[in-house]
């Protein structure tokens, strides 16, 4: 077949062209049967994997650079949630066809973020799928032995914190899908937060020794915080008025704002708990790293979650977050 036919590209050409970043010293990268990386003494490997499916996790017409960025960002977010520093990643690509301009842009988005986080692509898999693109990413990170932030470590009277200004990814989805009516300007302001998540990966390891428990906000603040509460077997109290709100929400109704803050997924920011005496170092290091952090509540002995609305009224029913098999 002539070279101009995109389907003439072999699997190996494709890997060599788009997914073979220069190897970091001391690491065996793409091209051998296994990627190989050293683990420093005193550290443990933190490993996580996430799949993105066309039509479910990203729109087919989304800029492929953003898709590449997001495929890795959602995984880096999991490393951030345990306080691990990224080291390497693997990419499993299932493509319905070879579209070189798509692959070029996708790999650029993926590899730019990988480079910015010292997260070397050390391998993967490339297969042909039926009609949808499916992206599987695995990340490996390093965390000092026994110091990882786990969901189960929250303690009564801990402050509950979040990073970032929340609500925009959910608002973007609701508007884009026609569920909410809003000015085009609102969508324009909110959409980048859905397409280009920026988990606080560089800063998260600084929570070690300060925070007790953490999770990344992927399915909605309430649902994700509930995982910490259930894992730790305590309860919590949070104030919606204290949750930093993304500027794109300003023109929406208070009901929409509340829904976006409490049940909006796709944030890839952190929710963490920390003892009161660690407030100052947390605020200091976050300010230096230019990460937004805010205290939104407290861990309680009583095992339920109490959420207060913008007026300080206790919510009687809690919104649910996203569940792939039980869609709300
Ligand atoms: P094997 O058959 O030994 O599993 P493959 O032929 O599938 O190896 O892949 C060849 C090399 O390319 C391996 O190092 C593999 O990890 C890497 N690789 C394959 N697909 C990708 C991809 N999408 N991204 C990064 N590396 C990849
Ligand atoms: Mg092999």
Describe the protein's topology.
Elements: H1 11-18, E1 43-53, H2 64-82, E2 85-95, H3 100-116, E3 120-128, E4 134-144, E5 159-163, H4 168-176, H5 184-195, E6 213-216, H6 221-232, E7 235-239, H7 254-263, E8 270-274, H8 279-288, E9 293-300, E10 305-308
Parallel strand pairs: 2-3, 7-10
Antiparallel strand pairs: 1-4, 2-4, 5-8, 5-9, 6-8, 7-9
Helix pairs in contact: 2-3, 4-5, 4-7
Bound molecules: adenosine-5'-diphosphate and magnesium ion.
Adenosine-5'-diphosphate (ADP) binds next to β2 and β3.
- Strand proportion, as a percent range, falls in 15-25%
Q: What's the count of strands? A: 10
Pick out the low-confidence regions.
1-6
| 3D shape | globular
Rounded to an integer in angstroms, the radius of gyration calculated over CA atoms is: 21 Å
Bound molecules: adenosine-5'-diphosphate, magnesium ion
Q: How much helical structure, as a percent, in the residues?
A: 25-40%
Q: Give the number of helices.
A: 8
What characterizes the major β-sheet? 6 strands, mixed
User: Mean pLDDT, nearest integer?
Assistant: 94
Order of helices and strands: HEHEHEEEHHEHEHEHEE
Class per helix and strand makeup: alpha+beta
Distance between the termini: 49 Å
Q: Order of strands across the biggest sheet?
A: 6-8-5-9-7-10
